[in-house]
């Protein structure tokens, strides 16, 4: 992730202690730092890491009103005249500051990151790929359940069509036909079981991912903290108390725009009334975007600032997880590929030796990488098998729908003859 990406910027004034005066400029937030540049000179007066912040407060005094203070180590920075307002800036800065402290890239891990080995880098990349595959498996599992429910529904429809066919045959038969009364004695299937199956599947739907977000509704200038929850069937926006603000089913979402790697907007269009639109900002959004792209591949749009997030890809429709997997594969290839041919008889033990020799990866890291790769292979095979099963189910559904349509047309013609 590019640490120079500008997540947000706000016009404001900064109190320059050396000259004892206020300087107008722009306060900017990046994934890891806070900066302030003066308007007149363009000079960067403030530039410090989020992990070095001790406190962010809203303060005021007799001389300074509606100000925001940031305590960085032993230095207190004052910002005033914040636009659109102080609360918006405070909520966003506090969100990214807290998430930075909670993440592995916080203050405690910053020094360790400088000494990160190739093994740790590979482990991180492959762990990310494993998470993407697990999320994909969850979505596919839910889709598989929906296909199963559709098949059960179609089988029920076909059963009802058979009953209707027998009833029509009874109506069409002459009154003197001796076996006509038997046609009415057909046991009808009860519906509660099917209904319960569908509802149980809905209630058991699992959460794919839940992240903290800063929520803006439509074009309101005020923002408030909340949560974004992604399900296989849609997404849900709730407040800090887990009270649902709005739930979008997959069919309700008309478009999702990715403004930056950290900010998206979700919209549902209406005719004759305002659209339902939410803008969501989060430090954890890069984890949710690949899942959103997988679920809403035809509805998601990457704007210019967000395309840099996915690298030099040709189309925004390519899975974000692919770029992570390719990066991991490239690094792994550079580690595993020896300078001279290696005999295949060494097997998996030789891979561990090569990992350790080529990039000085420890034995523990080599074993961990081997375990992750084994899990990735298993997940990939399971995903491939589920996709094949769903392809077969889709073919069966198509055949069943065609057959049911023909039966309906046939019975409509018979009903017309009777009337």
Automatic annotation (TrEMBL):
One Gene Ontology term, aspect cellular component: plasma membrane
Molecular-function GO term, any one: syntaxin binding
Signal peptide coordinates: none
Subcellular localization: Cytoplasm, Perinuclear region; Endomembrane system
Coiled-coil spans in chain: 355-393
Superkingdom in the source lineage: Eukaryota
Keyword Acetylation appears in the UniProt entry: no
CDD domains membership: SNARE_SNAP47N (cd15888)
SUPFAM superfamilies per UniProt: SNARE fusion complex (SSF58038)
Domain T-SNARE coiled-coil homology stretches: 356-418
GO biological process, one term: synaptic vesicle priming
InterPro entries reported for this sequence: PH-like_dom_sf (IPR011993), T_SNARE_dom (IPR000727)
Keywords linked to the UniProt accession: Coiled coil, Cytoplasm, Membrane, Repeat
Family that this chain belongs to: Belongs to the SVAP1 family.
PANTHER family for this protein: SYNAPTOSOMAL ASSOCIATED PROTEIN, SYNAPTOSOMAL-ASSOCIATED PROTEIN 47
Protein known as: Synaptosomal-associated protein 47
Species the sequence originates in: Ciconia maguari
């Amino acid at each position: 992730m590019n640490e120079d990406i500008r997540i947000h910027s706000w016009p404001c004034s900064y109190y320059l202690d050396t000259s004892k005066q206020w300087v107008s400029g722009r306060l900017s937030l990046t994934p890891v730092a806070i900066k302030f540049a003066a308007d007149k000179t363009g000079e960067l007066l403030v530039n410090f890491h989020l992990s070095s912040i001790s406190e962010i407060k809203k303060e005021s005094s007799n001389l300074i009103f509606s100000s925001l203070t940031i305590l960085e180590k032993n230095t207190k920075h004052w910002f005033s005249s914040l636009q659109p307002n102080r609360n918006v800036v405070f909520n966003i800065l506090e969100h990214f500051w807290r998430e930075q402290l909670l993440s592995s890239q916080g203050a405690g891990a910053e020094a360790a990151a400088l000494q990160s080995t190739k093994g740790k880098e590979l482990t991180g990349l492959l762990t990310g790929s494993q998470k993407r595959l697990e999320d994909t498996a969850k979505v596919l599992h839910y889709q598989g359940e929906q296909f199963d429910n559709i098949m059960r529904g179609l089988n029920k429809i076909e059963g009802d069509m058979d009953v209707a066919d027998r009833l029509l045959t009874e109506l069409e038969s002459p009154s003197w036909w001796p076996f006509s009364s038997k046609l009415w004695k057909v046991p009808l299937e009860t519906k509660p079981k099917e209904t319960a199956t569908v509802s149980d599947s809905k209630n058991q739907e699992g959460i794919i991912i839940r992240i903290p977000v800063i929520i803006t509704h439509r074009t309101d200038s005020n923002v408030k903290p909340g949560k974004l929850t992604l399900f296989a069937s849609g997404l849900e926006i709730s407040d800090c108390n887990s009270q649902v603000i709005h739930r979008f089913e997959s069919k309700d979402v008309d478009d999702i725009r990715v403004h930056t790697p950290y900010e998206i907007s979700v919209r549902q269009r209406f005719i004759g009334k305002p659209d339902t639109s939410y803008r969501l900002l989060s430090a954890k959004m890069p984890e949710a975007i690949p899942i959103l792209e997988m679920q809403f591949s035809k509805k998601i749009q990457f704007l210019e600032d967000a395309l840099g997030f996915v690298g030099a890809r040709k189309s925004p429709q390519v899975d974000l997880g692919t770029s992570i997997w390719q990066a991991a594969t490239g690094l792994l290839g550079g580690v595993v590929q020896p300078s001279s041919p290696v005999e295949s008889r060494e097997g998996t033990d030789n891979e561990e030796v090569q990992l350790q020799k080529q990039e000085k990866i420890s034995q523990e890291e080599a074993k961990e990488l081997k375990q992750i790769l084994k899990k990735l292979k298993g997940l990939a095979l399971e995903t491939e098998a589920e996709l094949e099963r769903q392809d077969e189910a889709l073919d069966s559904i198509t055949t069943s729908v065609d057959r049911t349509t023909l039966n309906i047309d046939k019975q409509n013609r018979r009903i017309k003859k009777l009337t």
